[in-house]
Write a structure and sequence with these properties.
It contains 21 helices and 16 strands. Helix 16 links the parallel strand 1 and strand 2. The longest helix has 28 residues. It is globular. Helix 7 runs antiparallel to helix 8. By secondary structure, it is of the alpha+beta class.
Length: about 650
């Protein structure tokens, strides 16, 4: 980043640093510890914190801020290193979502569990739906529609009228989505209403399939299609808002927030019933990650998610889809249930720990600054990088001493398929590589690992260096890199995997560099796992971001906010929402300069992330990411 060169030079040149800092007065320093001690989100740029660097900034906290001992004690207790994520308040909703017995009980009668789930849902709705509906009615423009649909769904569920329950749930979710088109949900009642709509949809689907002579088979529901066509105007068709569909429509650049705007989509056309149910399952999981308090998670939600997933993986129509998908020239996104997993050698699950030959060569003048965590305290990080909007690669933080599992453990992807229960869980996956998008779907985790990640590991072969630095037969001077597209590129991007599998939370800790600001309703912890050649399009988020690379390698390019005029940004998604993100139209590593001539003037920083690296991406900084090998990353968003 051009504007950060001066900052980085001061960091690298002690004499210049002392010269710049000789004019500072310690009395002008702010109490950053008191700022961290606040429980409310703040605009960090509004903090009255000195933006110069003290001569000992990389060594002593006292030279950066005047610290209140009381605040410091509280903050150190709050940000203490080595505390695993499973003990962090951020994951408290997970502990409410998955009762321990639900994750391990395979012997109980499914029909009995479905009845118990619907009964619990009905009792909860009878107590709260009326109150929620009253609060919705006071909101424009969709409050009245949402309230009426919610009450109809609750009444129909109580009467066990499943087609009407299903239709009313769809109408309710559609109203929620349209409200988000106007701006953030006005109050938490909208989230509660969405929880209930998702629950009613799942319950109706479970019962409608259970009633078909006891067969757990999802078929095209003619009666529901008839109801939809007659009851809903074709111009505003009812649809299932899903995180995956939003991802498909707008790329991999979703964001999170109180309103969960990026979790909902626009209509994607007709879907088979099983596709709709899988999307509702992922939607329900995503919604649970956004609640700020565990008491807000409905007690029946986790049971409904698990029952719906079990139903989906047994569907006969999916096996038929699989048989078609296994034919030559198959479209991989239709492959939901994996074939019987043969015995693979253990090494096939190990992510490569070397860069492929011909990997991008980082220009020293554009390289992102790297700083060992042992010499970067939290206040120093705040002063030097957060307040200055300067990216930095932090090394040495992802260690056992800081609560992280060893990097060798992260390399072993068999941890994701440790048992049959894990293999059968559903995850959203995108297919296709650069310039070869092949859609997206929701598939079993076992299929994702065995059919995509394992071949990516075993196919780790050197590439020609000339192919990486030549584009269309021309040597390019714009820092471009080129790699042939992998045939079966697959990417589980921005997924709440740690909420889905609580045991994995024990493998890492929340970085203290999130400043104690990580909260469910204003932040997120996402997992990004994919084959080599996955790409996250150039975009920027309204959040501070730390991208932690646990296994594999990625190439990352960063453009500061003042380069926006060269980046051809698309219109912002749901511009009225507080968590709006922006995406560039440019294919970063293969730009069309005739179509986007100004992009040739954009200045950027770049880096290669390897296992154990953490990249801080300031709020509003444009970033583009491509995996060079099979890759496992975690990102932390906060405000």
């Amino acid at each position: 980043r051009p504007q950060s060169n001066c900052t980085q030079e001061k960091l690298q040149n002690p004499s210049r640093r002392r010269l710049c800092d000789s004019h500072l007065k310690r009395s002008e320093m702010s109490d950053v510890w008191a700022l961290f001690d606040s429980d409310e989100p703040v605009e960090l740029n509004s903090a009255k914190l000195c933006k110069q660097v003290s001569s000992s900034a990389l060594l002593l906290d006292e030279d950066v801020v005047v610290a209140s001992s009381t605040s410091r004690e509280r903050v150190y207790a709050r940000l203490g290193p080595g505390k695993v994520a499973s003990e962090h308040p951020f994951f408290a909703p997970t502990r409410a979502l998955w009762p321990a017995h639900e994750l391990v009980d395979e012997s109980s009668n499914v029909n009995r569990r479905v009845h118990a789930f619907v009964e619990s849902l009905s009792v909860d709705a009878s107590e709260r739906a009326g109150i929620i509906a009253e609060r919705l009615r006071g909101c424009q423009p969709e409050g009245q529609v949402a309230a009426e649909a919610l009450i109809r769904a609750q009444t129909a569920c109580g009467a066990r009228d499943w087609p009407l329950t299903l239709l009313s749930a769809v109408n309710c979710m559609s109203a929620h989505s349209r409200q988000l088109d106007m701006g953030d949900w006005p109050n938490y009642s909208w989230q509660l209403s969405h929880f209930f709509a998702l629950g009613f949809y799942i319950g109706a689907r479970l019962f409608m399939n259970m009633m078909r002579n006891g067969e757990t088979v999802i078929e095209e529901n003619t009666s529901e299609n008839t109801i939809n066509k007659s009851a809903i105007d074709n111009s505003r068709r009812a649809h299932i808002p899903t995180a995956e569909a939003m991802n498909k429509a707008y790329g991999k650049c979703k964001s999170v927030g109180y309103a969960a705007a990026a979790r909902l989509s626009q209509p994607q056309g007709s879907l088979s019933d099983y596709q709709q149910l899988t999307r509702v399952v992922i939607e329900a999981l995503n919604m649970a990650t956004l609640v700020p308090d565990a008491s807000m998670v409905p007690t029946w939600l986790g049971t409904g998610i698990l029952l719906a997933e079990k139903l989906c993986v047994k569907v006969k129509s999916w096996k038929e889809t699989l048989n078609a998908a296994l034919k030559p020239n198959r479209n991989p996104e239709h492959c939901l249930v994996k074939p019987h997993k043969g015995l693979r050698h253990k090494s096939a699950y190990i992510v490569p720990n070397t860069l492929p030959h011909g990997s991008p060569q980082i220009c020293p003048l554009r390289a992102v600054f790297r700083q060992p965590s042992c010499s970067l305290s939290v206040p120093d990080f705040f002063n030097l990088f957060v307040m200055r909007d300067v990216p930095v690669v932090i090394t040495g933080q992802m260690s056992r001493a800081h609560g992280w599992a060893g990097l060798e453990q992260w390399r072993d992807l068999s941890l994701l398929v440790a048992n049959r229960a894990m293999e059968a869980r559903l995850v959203p996956v995108e297919f296709g590589g650069f310039g070869d998008r092949k859609g997206a779907d929701i598939i079993s985790l076992g299929n994702f690992v065995d059919e995509y990640l394992v071949p990516s590991n075993t196919g780790h072969t050197p590439f020609s260096g000339a192919a990486w630095n030549t584009l269309n037969g021309r040597e390019n001077a714009h820092g471009l890199h080129f790699q042939p597209c992998c045939t079966h590129v697959a990417y589980m991007s921005q997924h709440a995997l740690f909420h889905q599998f609580p045991d994995l939370q024990k493998m890492f800790s929340i970085p203290s560099y999130t400043l104690g600001r990580l909260q469910p309703d204003t932040g997120a912890i996402n997992v990004w796992i994919g084959t080599k050649n996955t790409i996250t399009a150039l975009h920027r988020d309204p959040y501070m971001n730390i991208l932690a690379q646990t296994a594999g390698y990625k190439y990352v390019r960063l453009y500061s906010a003042d380069q926006t005029k060269f980046l051809y940004a698309e219109p912002a998604l749901r511009d009225g929402n507080g968590n709006t993100f922006e995406r560039s139209l440019v294919a970063v590593e293969a730009p069309d300069f005739e179509l986007f001539p100004l992009f040739a003037h954009a200045k950027f920083a770049e880096t290669l992330l390897g296992p154990g690296d953490m990249l801080f991406i300031p709020k509003g900084t444009w970033h583009y990411v491509r995996s060079l090998t099979t890759s496992f990353s975690i990102n932390f968003w906060w405000k």
